[in-house]
């Protein structure tokens, strides 16, 4: 430093005389440096008084920063000890009572004591002077240049610093003054700015400023990168917007802009459909393809239809289950009489569903003859549970695509019936009835029953894949109910996936009660009558059941009741106002003569005629098995369109009789001279099954020994070569058939004794059930006398037995 500069600084110092006691003005959020000119707003009362005191004196005041901005009345320990002595250059009083002052920093000072605290702070101060530099070293010069370069970078990176300040910094050589000037323009935090203010050594202070500049350069560089990326993204968006607008204008000129509103609606529908993430992703992908297509393109219609299906499927929409078990039981009892086991199973499901919120839906299979209420029971279950009901008829379905749908590559492709049913239901937890499951077929197009394996498996159907949708759909919440007339045609793998519940035919008492509760009121209403126009007596209904219908279910019974109602409706339409009373006596005037009567040959005991019991798809039936003798040596002849199993039963019975000829008092040479013919009437109807074995054996013994068979005895059971009677199926239907035909005694296999629990008590009262283990027991019960005392077999039976047989189902009987 030259001598002239030292003299100037000494002269300035002598001119600047600062008092030892000054008013204190606490300032917020700013640190004032020497030579810094800054406007301040003064609003606190004690601060205004401090300003007034300074203006009344030499206009000097100490500016010290307080620790916390929110402090309205800072105490001395909440104010920094080092501040800046400033000169109040101007003062302006504002209308709201505040004061605006313009101050210039003069010198640093430290507070030594607080002289007074009221009405404002006055403090004793000690001036702080920078450590004098004897000479500027190379390190100092390099530091000054570095600071200038850093400041230039800061300005280039966008920091707002006044050009005048930059010019001054280019010409200034004092390290302390440079540090103060830069610090006052960097916008530092209060803590950093105060630390610089309290640093006396100018080189140390400038070094800290250099560090702060480095940090500021890094921050500004990162900020510049962010802003640049944002500008690029904004420019990209603007460019895309401009291009889209151009594309829209071009499409409008070409006439391609129609239908955009529809696409917007489809996008909204996709977003509101609450699809799984992978399904929504595929839907948006297809929508993007559709947006880039011409509306008249062939594939556009396919994609639009596909999106409609995706949107309309109930991916996450479910109905709330009604878990009031008492209410559900009331609904089931109101809708259906009898069927106790099924009602109990549904109530068990509801109970478990009430205790466990998340459970897989059961898969039930109702098996029973037509007309017993399988389909209507499914509707009642849905109503009891508060769920939607969907019925899907599988009768005659031969194409696998009916279940899984067609792929979208085919013209006119649609989803399968399962997905169509879900769309129809509108919820993902309906009761879905698969009707006539045993009527499924198969051909070269595939096997629909195999496609149902995934649908009816609770471990797999949570991700059922339809060929059209091509996305997994959750079927685990659906309650599937299948119905079938016979269980045998259903493949074993499919049968294994379902809980089979058998519905047997109704008894006469059950039919009477159902007719009174449901069938009569329904037919009266459907034929436009009022209950006051017609009245059915119980005897009339019994007569219809016994003589006009012979079935396991109720359909023909309801038809006959409907016929009576139509006859009465005609009379009412012609003006009659009398109540028509339908009785057993006047019933023929409505329905004509009885259709099912007892046959003549059953009036007495016949030789070689046995009442066998058969199961058919429409319930149980009586089979009149006939046997006759002829001269000849051809052995055993079987007719009546018998199946292989039934023929083998007849042969087994024949072999047993030949093996036990001596016990039956039959001469050994008898079988060499006689031909035996066994016939089952209604020869146009196929018959099969092993359960006619004991009946055939009884017929053979009767015709050979010439002992008549009791007409009021019916029997069922399979026979072995050892004479054992093996168990059979369909016992309830067979016993019901025997009761309808007024049979008094029914012979059953001993091992079927457990099945009697399923037969109503009122039925067991009407017939005597005799379980047997051997064929000897059957013969004792069925023949007029046994064992035979003498054997006088006729050489030739002059006339065959005249049993004609009863009408049976066209589908055939299983004996």
Largest sheet: 7 strands, mixed
- Provide the CATH top-level class of the largest domain: Alpha Beta
- Radius of gyration over C-alpha positions, nearest whole angstrom: 53 Å
| Total of domains | 6
Output the structural class: alpha/beta
Helical proportion, percent range? 40-55%
Strand content: 15-25%
Query: Tell me, what's the shape?
Result: rod-shaped
End-to-end separation in angstroms reads 133 Å
Overall average pLDDT: 83
Q: Which parts are unreliable, with pLDDT below 50 for 5 consecutive residues or more?
A: 1-14, 791-812
CATH-defined topology of the largest domain: Ribosomal Protein S5, domain 2
Strand arrangement in the largest pleated sheet: 18-19-17-16-21-24-25
How many H/I helical runs? 27
CATH architecture of the largest domain: 2-Layer Sandwich
> How many DSSP E strands?
26
What does this entry look like structurally?
42% of the residues lie in helices and 18% in strands. Helix 5 (175-185) runs parallel beside helix 7 (202-254), helix 8 runs antiparallel to helix 9 (277-291) and helix 18 packs across helix 19 (538-548). The chain is α/β, with parallel strands linked by helices. It folds into 6 domains: 16-128, LON domain-like (Archaeosine Trna-guanine Transglycosylase, Chain: A, domain 4, Roll); 138-223, Up-down Bundle (Methane Monooxygenase Hydroxylase, Chain G, domain 1), CATH 1.20.58.1480; 260-312, no CATH class; 325-502, 3-Layer(aba) Sandwich (Rossmann fold); 508-591, Helicase, Ruva Protein, domain 3 (Orthogonal Bundle), CATH 1.10.8.60; 601-814, Ribosomal Protein S5, domain 2, CATH 3.30.230. The longest helix is centred in the N-terminal third of the chain and has 53 residues, at 202-254.
């Amino acid at each position: 430093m030259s001598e002239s500069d030292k003299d100037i600084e000494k002269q300035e110092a002598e001119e600047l005389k600062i008092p030892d006691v000054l008013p204190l003005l606490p300032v917020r959020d700013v640190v004032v440096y020497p030579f810094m000119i800054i406007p301040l707003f003064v609003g606190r009362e004690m601060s205004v008084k401090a300003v007034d005191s300074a203006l009344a004196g030499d206009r000097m005041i100490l500016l010290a920063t307080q620790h916390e901005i929110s402090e309205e009345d800072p105490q001395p320990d909440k104010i920094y000890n080092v501040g800046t002595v400033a000169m109040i250059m101007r003062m302006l009083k504002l209308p709201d009572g505040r004061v605006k002052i313009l101050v210039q920093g003069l010198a640093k000072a430290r507070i030594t004591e607080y002289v007074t605290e009221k009405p404002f702070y006055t403090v004793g101060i000690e001036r702080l002077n920078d450590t004098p530099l004897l000479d500027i070293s190379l390190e100092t010069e390099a530091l000054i240049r570095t600071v200038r370069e850093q400041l230039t970078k800061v300005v280039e990176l966008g920091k707002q610093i006044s050009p005048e300040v930059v010019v001054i910094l280019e010409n200034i050589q004092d390290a302390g003054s440079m540090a103060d000037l830069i610090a006052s323009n960097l916008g530092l935090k209060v803590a950093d700015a105060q630390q610089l203010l309290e640093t006396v050594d100018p080189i140390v202070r400038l070094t800290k400023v250099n560090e702060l500049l480095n940090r500021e350069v890094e921050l500004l560089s990162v900020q510049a990168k962010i802003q640049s990326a944002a500008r690029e993204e904004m420019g990209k968006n603007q460019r895309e917007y401009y291009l889209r607008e151009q594309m829209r204008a071009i499409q409008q000129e070409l006439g391609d802009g129609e239908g955009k509103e529809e696409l917007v609606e489809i996008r909204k529908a996709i977003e509101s459909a609450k699809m799984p993430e992978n399904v929504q992703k595929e839907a948006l992908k297809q929508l993007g393809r559709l947006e880039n297509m011409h509306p008249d393109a062939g594939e556009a219609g396919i994609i639009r239809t596909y999106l409609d299906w995706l949107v309309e499927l109930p991916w996450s929409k479910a109905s709330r289950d009604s878990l009031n078990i008492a209410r559900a039981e009331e609904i089931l009892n109101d809708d259906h009489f009898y069927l106790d086991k099924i009602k109990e199973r549904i109530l068990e499901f509801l109970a478990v569903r009430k205790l466990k919120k998340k459970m897989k839906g059961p898969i039930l299979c109702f098996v029973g003859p037509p007309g017993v209420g399988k389909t209507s029971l499914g509707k009642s279950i849905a109503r009891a549970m508060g769920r939607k009901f969907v019925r899907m008829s599988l009768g005659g379905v031969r194409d696998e695509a009916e279940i899984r749908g067609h792929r979208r590559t085919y013209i006119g492709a649609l989803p399968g019936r399962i997905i169509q049913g879900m769309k129809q239901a509108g919820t993902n937890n309906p009761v879905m009835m698969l009707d006539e499951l045993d009527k499924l077929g198969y051909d070269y197009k595939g096997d629909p029953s195999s496609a149902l394996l995934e649908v009816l498996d609770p471990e797999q159907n949570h991700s059922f894949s339809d060929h059209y949708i091509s996305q997994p759909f959750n079927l685990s919440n659906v309650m599937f109910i299948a119905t079938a007339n016979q269980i045998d045609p259903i493949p074993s793998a499919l049968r294994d996936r379902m809980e089979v519940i058998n519905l047997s035919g109704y008894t006469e008492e059950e039919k009477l009660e159902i007719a009174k509760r449901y069938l009569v009121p329904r037919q009266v209403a459907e034929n436009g009558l009022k209950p006051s126009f017609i009245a059915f007596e119980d005897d009339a209904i019994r007569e219809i059941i016994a003589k006009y219908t012979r079935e396991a279910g109720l359909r023909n019974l309801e038809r006959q009741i409907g016929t009576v109602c139509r006859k009465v409706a005609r009379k009412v339409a012609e003006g009659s106002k009398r109540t028509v009373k339908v009785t057993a006596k006047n019933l023929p005037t409505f329905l004509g003569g009885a259709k099912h009567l007892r046959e003549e040959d059953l009036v007495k005991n016949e030789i070689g005629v046995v009442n066998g019991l058969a199961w058919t798809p429409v319930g149980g039936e009586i089979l009149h098995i006939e046997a006759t003798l002829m001269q000849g040596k051809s052995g055993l002849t079987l007719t009546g369109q018998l199946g292989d199993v039934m023929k083998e039963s007849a042969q087994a019975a024949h072999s047993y009789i030949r093996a036990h000829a001596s016990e039956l008092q039959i001469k050994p040479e008898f079988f060499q001279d006689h031909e035996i013919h066994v016939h089952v009437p209604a020869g146009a109807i196929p018959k099969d099954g092993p359960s006619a074995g004991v009946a055939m054996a009884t017929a053979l013994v009767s015709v050979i020994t010439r002992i008549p068979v009791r007409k009021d005895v019916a029997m069922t059971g399979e026979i072995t070569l050892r004479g054992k009677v093996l168990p059979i199926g369909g016992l309830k239907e067979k016993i019901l058939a025997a009761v309808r035909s007024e049979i008094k005694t029914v012979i059953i296999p001993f091992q079927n004794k457990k099945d009697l629990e399923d037969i109503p008590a009122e039925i067991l009262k009407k017939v005597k059930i005799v379980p047997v283990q051997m064929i000897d027991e059957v013969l004792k019960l069925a023949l007029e006398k046994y064992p035979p005392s003498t054997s006088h077999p006729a050489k030739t039976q002059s006339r065959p037995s005249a049993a004609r047989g009863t009408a049976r189902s066209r589908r055939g009987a299983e004996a």
